[in-house]
Amino acid sequence: MPNHSKRILMDNPTLSPKSLQIVEKILSKNDKKANELREIYAHGNLYVINLMSSPGSGKTTLLESLAKYSEQADIMMRFCVIEGDLQTNRDADRLEHCGIAAHQILTGAACHLEAAMVEDAYNALKARNALDVEYLFIENVGNLVCPASYDLGAHLNLVLLSSAEGDDKVLKYPSMFLCADAVIISKADLCEVFDFSIDKVRADLAQLKPNIPIFLTSSKDITSLHELVRFLAESKKMGYHSTHCF
Fold first, then answer.
1. Would the pTM of this model clear 0.85, i.e. be above it?
2. How far is CA 212 from CA 30, 59, 137, 152, in A?
3. Domain CATH for 106
4. According to the model, what pLDDT value does residue 1 have?
């Protein structure tokens, strides 16, 4: 059995052989489109960041904070956003209100974004002349399972874990954290309130992916973004591209 099939079965032990064939076909088609997206991103000189987390961890708030940070700091981050949600344009509207060009993808019942969806959104932003930026953030659908299986061609995969969710998520959802190039602990100012142990998260991550960068951020403290922004800028400067195989 190919390694790809084995991984799918490990992640989804209840799949029947027929279901496995369907899933493999979908993922194969997605991988092909993701490779095409990599060429598109390179042609547009865009550094693309796939932002993943459970619902309510603060992905949109982080992007709003990055926009505010860019107005004040010595490192300018010019970016636009592709938003993924099951319903409503609320997140895209929030970002547009902050002066960030954003395109909303409504997935309906789908709990993840796929490369073809991202391509359509990219083209929509391009039609608006909104891609004269350095970074493109893809805010994936809030989910700690499905997005970890779909390659979107991004250079960097960031996973948010908020203090309100609890410090036990890393080993509960290993597929998600294995695909992360860095982990952001959001709402870090509330760690004590929720008895959230940063050391436990570090120890659990070390079992999965040693030496992965961890950043603590808070929307209440704009300076908490310093190290994260420098990491993103350095990753772009070095031309870093995730080696994770979805």
1. yes
2. 27, 19, 20, 21
3. 3.40.50.300
4. 44
